[in-house]
Target: Acyl-CoA dehydrogenase family protein
Amino acid sequence: MAVDLDHDPLVVDLAHRTAEFVRTVVVPEEERYGGVSAVGGEPMRLRLQAAARDAGVFAPHVGTEWGGHGLDMRDRALVFEEAGWSLFGPLALNIAAPDEGNMHMLEAIASPGQKERYLRPLAAGESRSCFAMTEPAPGAGSDPAALTTRAVKVPGGWRIDGHKWFITGADGAAFAICMARTSGQPGDRGGATMFLVDAENPGMKIIRHIETLDEALFGGHCEVVFDECVVPDDAVLGEVDEGFRYAQVRLGPARMTHCMRWLGIARRAQRIAVERAAERRLFGSRLGELGMVQAMIADSEIDIAASRGLILRACVDLDRGGSGAQSTAIAKTFTAEAVWRVVDRSLQICGSLGVSGDVLLGRFLREVRPFRVYDGPSETHRWAIAKRVVGQQVRTMKEDA
Ligand SMILES: Cc1cc2nc3c(=O)[nH]c(=O)nc-3n(C[C@H](O)[C@H](O)[C@H](O)COP(=O)(O)OP(=O)(O)OC[C@H]3O[C@@H](n4cnc5c(N)ncnc54)[C@H](O)[C@@H]3O)c2cc1C
Model:
């Protein structure tokens, strides 16, 4: 497959301006709050987003009718990586998870009325959202078909009952996109529906903030209960029983945008390590002239370049209307592990400085580790990648027989 590596000059310019904005405006705020979003809170989010709007770099992903730049996936790769240079860069541009993935899905699936009510304020940064799919065992996790949350038809609407956890950004979100089973049994591959649930709905309750390794994503990760949560018929997003199909609309691109953002942090970590390696003198030479450190620096360069290439390849698949199931799984698995390796090597090169709070490498390490679990754990993706390859071979053998 031929892949055009060139970008429109306007997109290149947007990426440059994003890089400049993140380095000069966002990084100082990130350092001030140690990369923990709850410390800066809502005033920080509003301040950063206002500054991004003034700099003309806000909401690059949504269409112009929603106040954005309408970038396709390939162009997003360029700009999101620059935004990801800081833990708070995506928040500033309004392209952080889970809002960015939710905007993508609302743009693709929502009715005109739902777009006005939910997408417009979300794209403008006037509201936040969350995506409620995962459940405590034995419910949905790596295997979404295990979904136990149920929605039953009541006059004029639906009643949702279920238990979700690890719902990023739920605290303070204006609404949740909740995945619930409308037919079939846990274990069935179909029968799920997505519902738009307003935060004011008394049937949706946040019962706790889960303490986690990572603390940069806004609104934390929450445990949420849907208890006799009644929503009107027009709360259905798309069609009834099509939720698993729509989840793919969100998950493939959302996997890639996570990779793009975390690649930015990997580059930042590598920059910190390279600056240190160029300055620090040990055993009569620069640190960066010692072979084992050179190897770490080179391996990180290779990890960064290979991740970028795989992301680009998957984005081309998505832009051409493909499902990208295989290419996004490959890119996600590789990038999540590569980003971890790069940050870990960078910390090692910096020695005790790397472990200290004087640089943010320890914070970066905590932030990137969960990426090997969410958006599909590495093992789930490897299993699915191999299943597709072997399945294809079995089909070929049957055709040849
Ligand atoms: C920081 C964070 C934020 C999150 N945000 C959200 C959110 O906003 N909304 C939401 O709905 N969910 C969210 N999640 C949940 C996330 O999507 C799930 O954690 C993920 O799908 C894995 O499900 P699980 O945790 O139930 O693990 P399980 O399904 O219990 O899997 C446990 C382990 O089993 C192994 N495994 C899985 N599949 C296979 C296989 N095929 N073969 C061999 N081994 C396998 C893997 O090592 C995996 O880590 C978040 C999670 C984290 C950590």
Q: What stands out?
A: Residues 201 and 252 are 30 Å apart (CA to CA). The longest helix spans residues 243-279.
